[in-house]
Design a protein that fits this description.
The protein is α/β, with parallel strands linked by helices. The chain has three domains: about 10-95, Winged helix-like DNA-binding domain superfamily/Winged helix DNA-binding domain (Arc Repressor Mutant, subunit A, Orthogonal Bundle), CATH 1.10.10.10; about 100-165 and about 280-305, D-Maltodextrin-Binding Protein, domain 2, CATH 3.40.190.10; about 170-275, Periplasmic binding protein-like II (D-Maltodextrin-Binding Protein, domain 2, 3-Layer(aba) Sandwich), CATH 3.40.190. Helix content is about 45%, strand content about 25%. The protein contains eleven helices and twelve strands. The strands form two sheets. Strands 3, 4, 5, 6, 7, 8, 9, 10, 11 and 12 form a ten-stranded mixed β-sheet that branches. The chain has a two-stranded antiparallel ribbon with strand order 1-2. A hairpin with a 6-residue loop joins β1 and β2 (about 65). The protein is rod-shaped.
Length: about 300
């Protein structure tokens, strides 16, 4: 059963530490900006609250008892932690700090977040990002459940209790196997896709809806027989001549340009076919200023990629 004791204050802890440092009631009181009788009363009140003798009283320098030294050691830890909280509050109000749990789509996070994290470490050293990948639909559910503080995902995301910060638009290009007849074109149009077999991720991914809509518009055939489980899987299926697909610009830069030679990449619709990407959080979280600052930092990182169109 918990033992009930009178409240112990941070002020009393500071007075005890001052007494330990100065070894004199008068000097400790002066360093704390109070009278000696007031400090003596507070130390006595602390002893009574704990039921311990903390100070050896007598002639000469004041010394802490064994119990006093142990209490002082823990008081110092508590005061340090308290100052850490105060410092964090200043950081959170003026910048980014603490731990933020960020959920991200598997089609976005691996290709953007390494750059974002590197930049944030340089500009916001007190910030720690805990990043977890999932499909967009799982991300949204987990956001509502409180698993994530905010999510990086394809927009739009509906929900009256959610807030959104747009980051950028990311063009989608057509990937085709080497030697495909369309590889001779520098830019593909709607007519080029008519009758072509298009591969996509499963409907659990937001990209599926975007690609399904463009297939309906262009007369392309969205394959129902094969659904990729990742962008890498889609690329490999294309390389095996199973059809064409659309790949996001960040993936193309990270995994294909200057590296992979198994597929050809061609722009589509003058790079105007794109997905909108943003951050989403619960409006009731009360952390909108910090998340808006994070969005601004992510836009700054995105500006290094000329193929992205910055939004917001």
């Amino acid at each position: 059963m918990p033992i009930s004791v009178p409240p112990i204050t941070l002020r009393q802890m500071r007075y005890l530490l001052a007494l330990e440092e100065t070894q004199h009631f008068r000097e400790a009181a002066e360093s704390c900006g109070i009278s000696q009788p007031s400090l003596s009363v507070q130390i006595k009140t602390l002893e009574e609250a704990l039921g311990l003798t903390l100070v050896e009283r007598g002639h000469g320098p004041v010394r802490l008892t064994l119990a006093g030294r142990e209490v002082a050691r823990r008081a110092r830890e508590i005061l340090d932690a308290t100052q850490g909280i105060l410092d964090l509050s200043v950081t959170l109000k003026s910048g980014l700090g603490g731990t933020i749990r960020l959920g991200t789509s598997v089609t976005l996070g691996p290709y953007l977040m390494p750059h974002v994290v590197g930049d944030l470490r340089a500009t916001n050293p007190d910030l720690r990002l805990y990043i977890r990948e999932a499909t967009p639909r799982d991300l949204l559910r987990e956001l509502h459940d409180g698993v994530h503080d905010l999510i990086l995902t394809q927009l739009p995301v509906s929900g009256a209790t959610l807030s959104t910060a747009r980051l950028f638009r990311e063009p989608l290009s057509v990937a085709m196997p080497n030697g495909h007849p369309l590889a001779d074109r520098e830019m593909l149009t709607n007519e080029d896709l008519s009758g072509q077999t298009i591969l996509a991720l499963s409907p659990a991914y937001a990209l599926y809806d975007l690609i399904s809509a463009v297939c309906a518009e262009t007369g392309a055939d969205l394959s129902r027989d094969y659904e990729g489980t990742s962008l890498d899987a889609l690329r490999q299926m294309v390389a095996m001549n199973m059809g064409l697909t659309f790949l996001p610009a960040l993936y193309v830069e990270s995994e294909i340009e200057g590296r992979a030679r198994d597929v050809q990449i061609r722009p589509f619709r003058g790079r105007r076919f794109a997905r909108s990407v943003g951050l989403v959080w619960r409006t009731a979280s009360g952390a909108a200023p910090a998340y808006e600052r994070l969005a601004g930092a992510m836009r700054d990182t995105a500006r290094r990629f000329p193929q992205l169109v910055i939004e917001g």
